[in-house]
Amino acid sequence: MSKIVLTNIDKFYGKNHVLKNLNLTIEDGDFMTLLGPSGCGKTTTLRVVSGLEKPQSGFIHMDDKEIVNAAEAYFAPPSKRNLNLVFQSYALWPHMTVFDNVAFGLKIRKEPSDVIAKKVASALERMQIGEYAKRYPTELSGGQQQRVAIARAIVSEPRLLLLDEPLSNLDAKLRVDMRSELKRLHHETGTTIIYVTHDQVEALTMSTKIALFRKGELVQVAPPLELYDNPCNLYTADFIGNPSINFVKGTATADASGMVTESSVGQISFDRADMAPDAPQSGKIDVTLGIRPEQLTISRVQDDTHRVEGHVYSGMPAGSETLVSVRVGGDMLTVKELGSTHYSSDEKVYLGFNPKKINVFDSTTENLIKYCV
Amino acid sequence: MKQNEQNYSKSRRLKNQIKAVVTNPYNVIVLIAIVLLTYLIILPLLDMLSTTFQLSQRDLRAVPGGVAGEFTLYYWQRLLASDLSKNLLLVPLLNSLKIGVGVSVCAIALGSVLAWLMVRSDLPFKPFFSLAVIIPYMIPSWVKSQAWLSMFKTPRVGGAAGFVASIMTSMGMSNETIETILSPIAYGSIAIIIVLTLHYYAYTYLLVSGALGSINSELEEMGEIQGASKSLILRKITLPLVLPSMLSAVILTFSKAIGTFGTINYLGSPVNFRTLSSELYSNSKSQNTQTAFAMAILMICIAALSVFINQKLIGSRKSYATIGGKGGRSTLIGLGGWKPLITIVLFIFFIVGIIMPVVILIIESCMLKEGTYSLSNFTLYYWIGEGNPNIMEGVSGIFKNSNFKLALWNSLKLTFVNGVFGTIFGQMLGYICAKGRGKLHGKLVEQLVFIPYLIPSVAFGGIYLSMFSKEQTLFGVTLIPALYGTFALLTLTSVVKHLPFASRAGTSNMLQISGELEEAAMIEGAGFFKRFVKIVFPLSKSGFISGFMLIFVSIMKELDLIILIMTPKTSTLPYLAFQYQNQNCPQASDCVAIVMFSIVFLVYALANIFGDADLAKSMAG
Question: Which secondary structure element, helix H or strand E, spans residue B339, and what is its range?
């Protein structure tokens, strides 16, 4: 229940420039995911918001109240920011019981003990770990420890909840369970959440908005589906989506009505209306087509003249879906097909797709020039 | 954003910056630590240095036209470049180096072999051996020297002959023959090297066994798969991995060995074997403070040089020991056909090297006249006898003796007070070093704390004596009154001298506590002190106990450090034993040593049982 505005944040560790002039607004009630490969500055951003790190320049406002003003060396202490943090390592105090861990912050705030007991019980109940209150963290499984860490963070009803790769230490099945748990938590409490992860599936499934980082800079901030459908550049396109997007290099001739591309998947023409405003109006340019694997359809017969011929490199049926690698000209394309079909290697197949649904990027600037609509 | 920049105010920035520094107790503590360390370590050093350039009243005659208190190069010139240099400096220096190198080589070899056998081989009776191997660390080296003398003492030196000499006499050998055979063994460099090796190998053992324990045996197994023989694996894989800790052990041993005084006094003085530390002591005792300090500075330089060389040698490989981490399996290496032989040799070693000194001391403490091995000669006089004018000039047995009771009380008081203060300071400094890793203040504190380590114990006592016997004033305000002859001086000296160990133990202790545990509390609004009390302290309790024990053990047996500061009122057990020995009454000295050893052993055992404390843990890091 809180709006956070980061303005011109710069953070250095020694000479290492970790955050470069970062501007980010997190709206009230957002589930904002900071996404990116390791070392891109997402955790640092989280720590700067929490107050554990002090940026060298920039401002942070929380509900229009200034909490960081680096120019005046003003940094509100973490405890005054009405937020809480779940660490990647959980950081549960091993010498305290689950109850004491969760109650710690309330005790610091000198709340009456009956209130503490009630709040802790309710937080533990919400995370479904009420029966473990008397245990020590080491006596719990990883998933239970995770729940304790979250209970500790939400017990004080913070206006902002920060989560630093909270699921990365859990096994695959638990991770899926916790994902829906967290999404539910966000829905019930309405708390603004900032969530750090390098796992794009987590980001896509849980967030209301994703902020994608690269080397200390923001690349794109958008709702998950927008990020998936229309990544603003090749980096984003490549990072988002699993299996990852197919890139096909080609050339394009642009004119006022649109452009025509030439590549291993044939000649395709695009309408100006689907293109970015700053896309070239004329001339020849190098382009990269971005085709999501699920946009490709595969067929053993050429039932449509638009289909292009290819040869199966390998087929990987996995029950609910089948991934097929197909060699088309000099390119290798991954196709995702629902259900399981067996394709033998070197089998001749035909691929098709809807040109409206694919992205085109300018190879030189790497930026998106044609939207998926 | 524009608006914000307009609001920017320099005065507010300054105010906020000052507020941030002042209201953070961590900064305040760091500041206090740096000021205190400077005052207690840097200042005495500078004081010592400047003293060596000041002409003293008593040497006025030696320097024509000199004025007392004026700048002079007289002392340095006399020490380094005069006809006296050879006798005054060169001979003791060479002896010191001989002892230092000899002890280092022997102790490293012995300690490493024992560590390897204990950690990596399938040696039987390990629980027994691993306890026995620690015991020498608890017996002070001067007690071992005492036992050595009881064993090998020759008739010439006065007092009764030792055990071996008595046997030789009863075999009908003449005193001259005994002298020629036994004297080289009983006194001088060989005796000193053996006794000190039996003491200091414990350092190597603790450090190297720690390093060996953390090596993943898969590294060795990989070598085996590649077809390397056992000895090749040992040489090419295991040894390089533990080399850094072996080198640290060399430094530790070398600087301790050249700084040691008690053993030299016991085993060296009968044959006029002098080292820098014994010269330093006698110069201090005879008020030749300037010469003593000049020697101390030379010794500090030697120690600093050895540390420097060590760091160059280890370089970036420092972190080897932790590579591979603990988690890995550790497969023991079979000793094969050598097993019985090695076991027997080890047993003999422990019996001769550890049990025998203690037994000799106990036996000797019950002998009315030393050297006379007959049943009628056995007595408990030295333990519980009432004063008898014919024995020991009428001094009663130690349990009836007020001097002993005072010394016991002083020792307990000193070790306890030191243990508590030393541990608290050590852990606080360790906290600073751990939090400030890679930052300027962390490095500064780490360096400052390390300095007392380089100063030989005898010299350290000397500096503090000269510095704190007068009152300390600042702008006319008395900060510290004159401390000469007080318990406070004793405490101060011991705490500061043991800071390197204590803070090292503290650092490795604090490094084990993940920073996130504290950050989590910070988010919850816990202030610095609350965090320390609620999070840091409970999590580092066992480290506190280890640290306490390390300080307790080493101060209980401390002689070199406090020997110059001692007055009859503040005498401790080691000093009392030292006095008895010098008054030619080894039995009483033995009694005191046995009591002291028992206390050390008891405390160690208690801490081990109840505190899960580990000497090795506090030494590493």
Answer: helix B339-350
CATH code of the domain occupying B403-621? 1.10.3720.10
Residues of B with CB under 8 A from a CB of A: 1, 4-5, 8-9, 12-14, 16-17, 20, 514, 516-517, 519-526, 530, 534-535, 538-539
Measured between its terminal Cα atoms, the distance across chain A in Å is 33
Q: Considering only CB atoms, which residues of chain A are within 8 Å of chain B?
A: 7-8, 50-52, 59, 66, 69, 71-75, 77-79, 83-85, 87, 89, 91-95, 104-105, 108-109, 152, 156
Cβ-count burial A204-230 (b if 16+ within 10 Å, e if not) = bebbbbbbbbbebebbbbbebeebbbb
The pairing of strands A65-69 and A74-75 is antiparallel
Q: List the domains of chain A with CATH numbers.
A: 4-238 (3.40.50.300), 240-370 (2.40.50.140)
Does the beta-carbon distance from A91 to B514 stay under 8 Å? yes
Task: For B524, name the nearest residue in chain A, comparing CA atoms only.
Answer: A105
Taking an 8 Å cut-off on Cβ atoms, the answer to whether A72 and B8 are in contact is yes
Per-residue pLDDT band for B1 (boundaries 50, 70, 90) equals very low
Please tell me what DSSP assigns to residue A53: S
Asked if A314 and A322 count as a contact pair (C-beta separation under 8 A), the reply is no
Q: Enumerate residues 6+ apart whose C-beta is below 8 A from B125.
A: B343
Cβ atoms of A306 and A271 within 8 Å: the answer is no
CATH tag, B71-387: 1.10.3720.10
> Dihedral of CA B222/B223/B225/B226: which sign?
positive
How would DSSP label each residue in B385-399? PPP-TTSGGGPPPGG
Quote the ipTM score: 0.80
pLDDT in tens, B465-518: 888 877 777 777 777 778 888 888 888 899 998 888 888 888 878 888 888 898
Q: In degrees to the nearest 10, what's the CA dihedral of B489, B492, B496, B499?
A: 140
pLDDT band at residue B613 under the 50/70/90 scheme = low
* Nearest C-alpha neighbor of B105 from the set B185, B186, B196, B211: B196
- Smallest Cβ–Cβ distance between A78 and the set B20, B522, B539 belongs to B522
CB B570: neighbour CB atoms within 10 A?
21
Can you say whether the dihedral through the CA atoms of B363, B369, B373, B378 is positive or negative?
negative
The answer to whether the CB atoms of A93 and B520 lie below 8 A apart is yes
* C-alpha–C-alpha distance, residues B203 and B36, integer Å: 29
Q: How far apart are CA A223 and CA A206, in angstroms?
A: 11
Whole-angstrom distance, CA of residue B511 vs CA of residue B296: 34
- Which residues does residue B71 pair with via DSSP β-bridges, in sequence order? B54
Residue B209 CA to its chain's centroid (Å) = 19
Sheet holding A368-370, edge to edge: A266-271, A258-263, A246-255, A283-291, A359-362, A368-370
